[in-house]
Amino acid sequence: MAEDEARGICVRDVAAKDFIAAYAEHLKNSDKFELPVWAEQVKTGVFKELAPYGDDWYYIRAASIARKVYLRPGLGVGQLQKWYGGSYRRGTRTEHFRKANSGIIRSVLIQLEGMKVTEQLPGGGRRMTRVGQQDLDRIAGTVFRASEEEEE
After folding, report:
1. Is the pLDDT of residue 1 over 70?
2. Closest by alpha carbon to 140, among 19, 4, 3, 15?
3. Which of 64, 95, 115, 137 sits CB 3.0–4.6 Å from 87 for a disulfide?
């Protein structure tokens, strides 16, 4: 048992859904991460008809973006737009792929940069700072231990 505890738990070791929920809660309780004033009216993409229903959707998206940047350093706004994009259903005409809203992604990345979680790369894209990586690993550790306790 001591051998398992010596190994550090990172974001890859926990389920995405559980980690994103825990990190979103952490961001919500953080005083450095703020909900923008436009968050209630904005859609997440051209292909959506309505804005998200949940009150915490911005924090959940931010946690998801932070996880993506952790797993793939060098990720930029364009790649994230593609990841969060979806099918634009045009009635009887054929559907086409549309990218997600870049303003939301950019505002999240700017706020994470302000919190010293991510940093810009000289060639473009973002990566985790050492502080950000430790922060995410710590939250992943708590999620991992909570899931272990549930199993027992």
Report:
1. no
2. 19
3. 95
